[in-house]
Amino acid sequence: MRNIASSSSSSASTPKWTYDVFLSFRGEDVRKSFVDFLYSALQQKGIYTFKDDEKLERGRSISPALLQAIKESRIAVIIFSENYATSSWCLDELAEIIDCKHVLGQTVLPVFYYVDSSVVRRQKGSFDRAFVKHEDEIEDKERIQKWRAALTEAASVAGWDVPNTADGHESKCIQEIVGDVTAKLGRVIAVEEKNQVGIDSRVHKVNALLNLGSDAVHFLGIWGMSGIGKTTIARAVFDRISTHFEGAIFLHEVREQSKSLEILQEKILSKILCLKDLRISSVFEGSNMILRRLCYKKVLIVLDDVDHLDQLEALAGKHHWFGAGSRIIITTKNKHLLVTHGVDKMHKVELLNQSEAIQLFSRHAFKKDYPARDYEELSNEIVHYAGCLPLALKVLGSFLYGRDMAEWRSEVERLKRIPEDEIMEKLKVSFNGLREVEKEIFLDIACFFNGKKEEYIRRVLDSFDFYPDIGIKVLIEKSLVTVFGGKILMHCLIQEMGWHIVRQKAPDEPGKHSRLWVAEEICDILARDTATENIVGMWLDLSTAKDVVIKNEAFEKMKKLRLLKINNACVSRCPNCIPNGIRWLNWHGYPSKSLPQSFQAEKLVGLNLQYSRIIHLWKGIKSLDKLKYIDLSYSQKLIRTPDFTGIPNLERLILEGCSSLTSLPSSLCRLKCLEALILSGCSKLDKLPDELGHALSLKELYVDGTAISKLPSSIVLLKNLKTLSFRGCKAKASRKCRAFSPSWLRGQKSQNSTGLVFPSVSGLNSLAKLDLSDCNLSDKGLPCDLGSLSFLVELNLGKNNFTSISAASIKNLSRLRILELVGCKRLEILPELPPCIEEVYADNCTSLQSATDLTKHGLLHRVSFSNCFKLLQDERTSSMIYATWNHMLKKFSLVDGSFSICLPGGSIPSWFTYQNSGPSITIELPPNWYNNEFMGFAVCVVSDLIRTPFLLELQWRELLQKIPGFPVQFTLIDKEMNRFCYVFTMAFVGAENNIDSEHTCLGYLPFDNILDALAFTRRRNGSLPSLWSNSLRSPNDWTCIEASAHADAKECLVFKEWGISLVYENDVRQNSELLMIPQSSELGERRFSSNVIVNRLKSSRRRRRGPEALPSFPSELTQIGDPSVRRPIRVDGVHLFSTVATDLPSLMSNVHHVHGSIGGCDTITNPGRYLCLAQGAWYPW
């Protein structure tokens, strides 16, 4: 079996530099004069210099300590004086220095102190006399010959002749030496930093925050989780800038040395002021001395690994302690420590990206930048386990160096069960600093809630009286968790550390653990009844349904159980008891008809029994003051709810899909805290309680698909109601009209209508979302005072039977952004829209003949009129619709930049530069295609609709229903076949039935959006398992673009033609042939408006031009997908790349909001195997 050590190059190893400079000199000649002044000057510049102690015992050979100091110095400064060669010690030093020059690349700088270089080089004069004496006294002639060769080589290096430098002024000569050393150190450090993985870009960010050009005193905090590289970055910054200060010190591991803050104060003052034998008797004295002695000096101080405010107050209390231009850098795991101390700026250290992680691991495991052959897959497994954490990568890489394949495989398997002790101990430092309640929160998140929604976690933790608002904040500040996309995330090794803490007292007896989350262990404990009272939480979440045996007495010993979750467990019968102390009960498929009679549930806060066999929860009235959340969704045997009199603090009641439920108790209306009532799918429920309006806190009411035939008149009292949905309520109007009370009913029943006649809504002052779709509403069925809903943001009236909508009803909705009229097949006129409208969906309105002027609406950026052929029969309306494209282009600065419009018709306009027939298009970009005038890409797609496309739910705006569209995938490819994929969604709904006609979608994608995506990727690169292209320096390095629809869209649409144009400001401004709207008769058989866009592009949109506008290349550009992807094959003018088809709709269930996204209709995506940012949101690929 091959040993990888033999195939790895040892030359890749980097020397460990402890000192910047080593001084070699003859003490009796220059120690108290020239060398003393030189040493002080170097120290003043922050150059860490080794000068041997004059009391150091001299022997016949060089000491091990001195030998080590030589090897660990970047630069050796040799001061040749008259008697230098008389010391065998000095000559041994010199010989060692020359060896280090050859082996380690040490820099040698000779100084000739009143001795000529030729005398040293040829060993003449005093040097010759010294060697005559050495040859008489020393028998080792080889040693003497080595001295001679070292003198010859050292004296041949360009150096300083002191008498002939600066007219013999030694002080000026010393300044020149220090300047040259400083310059050489800068070059050496720059080279070393290039050899440190990912360090250059990170140092650049920190230096930018330091604002080194300012004379103000700046405190900068660098924070992040253990082992992420805070110290490495701070050290690199220190090495790069320390010579620009009058004094500098890097104080390592303050936390470990903080038992004696006086000693740390002594170190700061001694190093910066070059003092010896300084003693400080108290912290107060030391603080005052730092203030008095450093307040006029420009200093650089790095306080590494600070963990308590006392340390900062003692070592760097206030800005005025230090002179103008000083910089104080603090590294810590605790962000709040920095906030409390009032640092000027903070920098959070991110994880390495995948490429950097592989490189760092390989340097330790293989002594080169990439894995050895046959070890690639194992290396990826290790990097995945390490979660791209530098500490773990170094520890594991060093451990595996030189080991064979069998040992590697064994270690990978071991890590799956037993964590690495060295890594765990480092990570536990932050945990040990938590208070008890914070430790409980941390362990709950590690065992149960990692990756879950923050709102849900806060609810559960609050039920435990853990005060999650402050507790989670502390965990974030101590770099133990992060919040992203509305979810709480924990690094995989931090989570494993939490698991390790739970298991460590009884590693082989899970029944004694405080928390259980491993399915096999839980099933064994429940079946064998081996639980103990230690258990506080049990989380059995099976990926697929499985039979689970639960003994009757399984829960009796769990007296402290506060959390129980069981999902996908097929249980034949429920245990005899559930612990009374439980706070959160979540049992998917609960097997009994009711909860056990013995279950008192006095501490219960959350009850989730979805898909249960419950018929009724309990009999009579139970006093459950703490219960806030009840979810009995899809409990199809539920026939009645409990009396809510004893549950006064209930906030959410979810009964969705309870198809046997026929009524609700009147006690529901007396719930003063109820905020959400979800009854959708309760198909037998035909009535709401009359006094529902007395539930004054109600904010959400969903009754979709119920049999409700009348509404209580009291509903107008719901002043806080924000969401109201009646989707699919198709009760006959004749019954409804008689049911409404006079104060509620304002409309009148149409003579021929069998649909819902909706009442007044004037009392719903807070309503933001209203869904009346698929309710058989007729012309007089809409509320006559719909326009009074001044806070309405989204209105869905789709699939109804009205022919027109009152202009006032829509126009007066001053905050309306989204109007959905999809499937209103009798609608003839599009109502006048309010100024704030952003999106209009009128697909499959087959009778629609005219529309108001859409060009008046400055925020409109998504319009879809598929299967609205009659709309184009009127010439005036047709021209207005097509002119909307022009209008969108002019106004896109007011939205996120991208926009689209979908219309009937079927050909690509001639002004599109690149055109292709078929399912996709690939264009070869011209040289230097990107410049200051480049704006973005215009896209045109012609397709046949074969069925309604899949729906992408845009969760960031919390729509009442899913809004559709099909994603156009842009793949930008460089000459090395690295691929960066970006997707933007074109507005498109379609129809329920196949449409035997072509449709055209026009879209515009500004390049600024792609730059934003790159910047976002850079901010999140620590958590992106992506590969980074080191060759891409500019957008012009992208050589071609492939555009296609996503695989799922191809199931709904037949794509026939594609068109792409690169849009430049000058072209559109000056050349009438490059129009952003097609010329006449170019799209189907209808005519486009001939209006021309001229001089309309210099709007107030955000502009970023020139190289400085880009995220710093190359670190922001992602090589996504398989790096070994085949080179393109030319097929009828189209490049084809292999990709992995993915079920996008199912993936969208995991979508997260991206903070800062404005429009929400653009995406970054990976066509292969990693991640996708869709609709302004990340989800796993």
What descriptive keywords fit this protein?
eight-stranded antiparallel β-sheet, 1181 residues, Rossmann fold, WHD_ROQ1-like, alpha/beta, plant defense, 20-stranded mixed β-sheet, NAD, repeat, disordered N terminus, NAD+ nucleosidase activity, cyclic ADP-ribose generating
Strand content: 15-25%
Low-confidence stretches: 1-13, 54-60, 732-754, 892-896, 949-963, 1020-1031, 1070-1181
Please summarize the sheet with the most strands. Answer: 20 strands, mixed
DSSP helical segment count: 32
**CATH topology description of the domain at 19-185:** Rossmann fold
What is the terminal separation in angstroms? 37 Å
Helix-strand category: alpha/beta
Helix-residue proportion: 25-40%
Shape: globular
Give the name of the CATH superfamily of the domain at 19-185: Toll/interleukin-1 receptor homology (TIR) domain
Characterize the structure shown:
With 1181 residues, the chain is an alpha/beta fold. Among the domains are: 19-185, Rossmann fold, CATH 3.40.50; 199-348, Rossmann fold (3-Layer(aba) Sandwich), CATH 3.40.50.300; 354-418; 433-497, Winged helix-like DNA-binding domain superfamily/Winged helix DNA-binding domain (Arc Repressor Mutant, subunit A, Orthogonal Bundle); 888-953 and 960-1017 and 1036-1071, no CATH class. The strands form eight sheets. It has a 20-stranded mixed β-sheet, with helices on both faces. An eight-stranded antiparallel β-sheet has the order 30-38-34-35-44-45-46-43. Helix 3 (64-71) runs parallel beside helix 4 (88-103). The longest helix is centred in the first third of the chain and has 25 residues, at 170-194. The chain is globular.
